[in-house]
Amino acid sequence: MPTPPTDLSDLSELSERLQQQLAHAPAILVTVAHTQGSVPRELGTWMAVFADRVVGTIGGGHLEHQAMAQARRLLLDPLLPASPQRWALGPSLGQCCGGVVMLDFERLHAPDSARLKERLQAPLAPVALFGGGHVGHALARLLLTLPYALTWIDSRDGVFPTGLPARVHCEHAEPVQDAVPDLAPGSEVLVMSFSHAEDLDIVAACLKRQRAQGDLAFVGLIGSQTKWASFSHRLQKMGFSPEELAQVSCPIGLPGLVGKEPEVIAVAVAAQLLMRRTLM
Asked: Hey, what domains does the chain have and what are their CATH numbers?
């Protein structure tokens, strides 16, 4: 039986693809139901196993191989119980994680498609990305593979690519800082426009919103320490206190990554956002 590589696309696309495939063939949904110790993927991770393909992944390796084999046994024998199964990730399974994973197996048919859409999509954290330059494009591509709902904003026309998924909202705003009051509560704001003047206006608008509502989860500004020293001086002249300025992270990105290529900066910024999730 052919076993294609597991799918690492974003969860919204995976859910849609699963629903499309279910219209033509049944599947077995394999879900991480319980974990203990070190394991490849977190609770709720899933994959759907069809006779000739797999949508999603539960982490790869021998665990996934064994789970796919069990799922296809269930597809071949409708009378075989779809019971949960426990795997210890030790030498006997050829994985050295050392933890324990409990997997649920569930038969899926075309009528199940509608109820799966909301259930299988992970909650998406709102991110507002100001700037459609090289770094903005690299970061947007990366965020599409992560559990974020992206609002992408620029003052220029024609900077956004076509064919973006529905969870990306592209917005032309002129002046660009006018988009800040309408951002979703809890948004993590990433400021990397084409000009320092716009960056300053966006940061000032974010700080005004924080003063009034305090509902932005993060404000990150691309740039050097020298840029932030200049911005801090100008923002204090606008009436913002040192305590308010401390809400802005600049330079943006997880420290320690070497390189100024757009893709490297994008990885550092995404890593900073993900690190924040683990600490919350």
From this structure: 11-120 (no CATH), 125-279 (3.40.50.720)
